[in-house]
Amino acid sequence: MELGELDRKRSDSYLADSKPDAAEGIPTEHAHQNPRQTHWALTGLMTVGMIMGTGVLALPAAVAGLGYVLGILFCLLFGILAGYLGIILGETRLRFCPNVTSYAQLSYRLVSEKFGNFTRYAMYLNWWSILPLYMLTTIESFRAAFYWTNICYSVWGLLAMGLLIVPIQMRSYHSISYIVAISDISVIVIIVLILIVLGAEGQNTPSGFKHSVGPPTGSFLSRYGNISTIIFAYQGQSVFLEMMSEMKDKREWPKALWLGQSVMVPTYILTAAIGYYLLGDTVPAFLPAALPNNGAKVFINLLLAFHVLVAYLVHNQPLSQAIEAIIDPKIKASRFVHFVVSSSILLSAYIVANLIPFFEQLVGIIGAAFGSPILLMYPPLFYLLGMKSAGEHIPKTHLIICGLCLFVLFPFTFFVGVASAFESLAEKWSRHRPFDCDLS
20 to 30 A Cα–Cα from 43, which one of 208, 223, 274, 277? Predict the structure, then answer.
C-alpha cells in the first residue's frame, strides 16, 4: 500500500480517537476494510520508507560528535532496541487490543481516558513538530542548490510556502500516491549519490581531516546532543499499529519489522561511518551542504527539496483533519475552514523554522522531546500494562529491558536531551538571531 494511503488511514484512526463510545466512554476503534492486505515483506519495506528520511542526513555529524566507537555503537544499539520495542508493541496489540490503530487508542484501553486524551494531543503535537523541520530542510536544500545566490534564509522560506499553499488545500492525497512513492525512493537515491559524489571528489580525501576514535573534547551536554539525533532517526513506532492493521497475517509482524531493521540499521551505520570518514570533523549537520559546488550539488539538493515538500504534504493532511475535527467534530470542515487551518499550520512552520533555523538543533529538540517517549516510553508501558491487566507472567528478560527503557533510558534521554538541545540552541542564538538573513 502506498504511503499516501497509509497516512490517510492514520488520519482516520486519529479522528476516530476523538469520537467517544457511548457504551464504554472510550474511543471507538477504527474499522479497517482495506481489500489490499499486505504481505509481511512489503510491510517490512514500508517501515523503512516511513522512518528513514531527513534524520539519516544528520548521522555523520552525530558520529563526528561522539567519535567512531560510541557513534557506531549507538547507531547499532538504538537500531536493535527500536526493533525489540516494535516487536513488543505489536505483541501488545495482537494479544490484548487487536483492533487499535494508534497510541491514543492503546492509551485509552490500557491506561486511562485522561492519559488517552493526553497521548492523542501529544501525537498531534509530534506531527506538527516535524513540519517546521521539513520547512527548514527545504530552505537548506534551496540554499545549497543555488549556492551562487545571496538570497535571505527567510525569503527561501517564503518560496517554500508559495510552493505548498495550493497543494495543501487538497483534502486527500490518494490521487498523488505514486508521487509519494517516488519521493520515498528518492531518499535512498539521495544518500547513495551524496556518498558517491563526496568519495569521488579529490578534495574530500580522509587525510585532509581529523577523526576521533573516542569522544572529541567538549562538555557532556554538547556531546550528548548527538544521541538525540540518533533517536530521532529511529523514532516512528507510533505508526506501527496502523501498518500492522494492514497485514494479511498480523502474527508475521516480527518478521516484517526485523526485515525493515535489517535494511535500515546497516544503511544508517554505513552512511554515518562513510560520511564521517570522508569529511572528518568538518562534516556538517546537514550533509548535502558539504557537496562541492557543481551540477551534482544542484540536482541532489533539488531532489531532496522535492522529497521534503511531498513529505510535508503527507504529514500536513492528517494534522489538518485532526484540528478541523476538534473545531467541529460533527461535520466535515468547509473549504474555507480547511484553508484557514492548513495555512495557519504552514505559517507556524515558517515562523518556527526562522526562530530555530538550525538543522542540528531542531533535530535534537524533536528527537529528545518526541522521539524519546515515542521510542522508549510508550511501547514498554503498553506491554507491561497489557500483561498485568491480563494477569500473565512477564518473562524476566522482557521485564528487565522494559524497566530499563521506562525508568532509566526514557527519563534520561528526555530531560538530558532537551537540556542539551536548548544549550546548543542558546549558543547558536548568541551568534545568529532569529530571522537573520545570512546564517553562514
Answer: 274
